[in-house]
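Form 7-S
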Amino acid sequence: MTERPPMTLFLCAPRGFCAGVVRAIHVVEKALELHGAPVYVRHEIVHNKYVVDDLKKKGAIFVEELDEVPETDAPVIFSAHGVPKSIPQAARARNLLAIDATCPLVTKVHREAEVHHKRGRLVILIGHKGHPEVVGTIGQLPDGAVLLVETPADVAKLHVPADRELAFATQTTLSVDDTAEMVEALKARFPAIHGPHKEDICYATTNRQEAVKAVAPKVEAMLVVGSPNSSNSQRLREVAETEGCRVARLILRADEIPWDDLHGISRIGLTAGASAPEILIDEIVEALRARFDLTIETVTIADETMFFPLPRELRESV
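Output:
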């Protein structure tokens, strides 16, 4: 038997599921328990293929738009990313049993944007064009009430009336450092701009990025478990690269481990985006253990105790 080369695995903590994701998955499971299959879910409940496929097996049907939902008494659930106001309105017009699984921290951004709008401010949103959370936040306000910026260059090109009061908000799953640069650019150009009372980037995004920053200097490679369409997972990969990891890869699960890239490496980091379940981390650890003489160290930068209750419709049913 060939001797396995030594490998030290540094596990980032926190990693994986956040409170908003736990709540969203629980919403679908509780709706299935109370109402039976099927339940309909508009958009992926969270951005993770393993989670979505598991819920499909339990009876969830995923659609992209409400018009794909037939006339039904079954619940229709809105994803954790949030939806434009037009979606609940359309559900009410069809008398659908709508259940909103939007993360409360995303809802916080929605409410703040509404407050700024009521006070006559033009809202500048820092985020990624087309991401469901951004679409949902922009859709809280009338057309033209929100301007989206993705880069400092976008800030430089903004055209706003000189006498217009401004405010900014951010997508909750952005890079902490990149967003700080964007906020700095906004404040430099618009010194009187209003910001959120508490930063919009969620605690889970911040903690997972900080854990990667703590581990990155210790390792030669970083594996991030998450789906390609998961914003917070992509940001973790980017943070690892920025912090000097010459190999930083986003993978869905163990069968995507880039073994050739790990040749000659003896120190590796492992983390997971906020929508990736711990079972996928366990799977990857076992795959590494099969090839290497593995030593595991956990690097913890925060303990997370956040909990979000189920939506009222499900609590009342219970």
